[in-house]
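Work Package 4 report. The design task specified in the project plan requires that, given a folded chain encoded as structure tokens, an amino acid be chosen for each position. We show below one input record used in the internal validation round.
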């Protein structure tokens, strides 16, 4: 739902890169190039970004008041 602060496998801080990644991919840049430029070299960190589904907007609709 929300991008983790650190990579689950290696512990590298990654959450600060999520907004830049999402914006650059939405702008049409190649995903591989964006991950390389952001410094995500390990496959565990790359998989975290590629497999992440942003569900916070969907789950927020069911917030209990």
């Amino acid at each position: 739902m929300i991008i983790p602060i650190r990579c689950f496998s290696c512990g590298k801080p990654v959450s600060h890169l999520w907004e830049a990644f999402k914006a650059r991919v939405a702008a049409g840049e190649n995903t591989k190039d964006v991950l390389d430029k952001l410094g995500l070299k390990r496959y565990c960190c790359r998989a975290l970004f590629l497999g992440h589904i942003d569900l916070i907007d969907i789950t927020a609709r069911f917030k209990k008041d």
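The chain has one domain: 15-60. Validation will be extended to a larger panel in the next phase.
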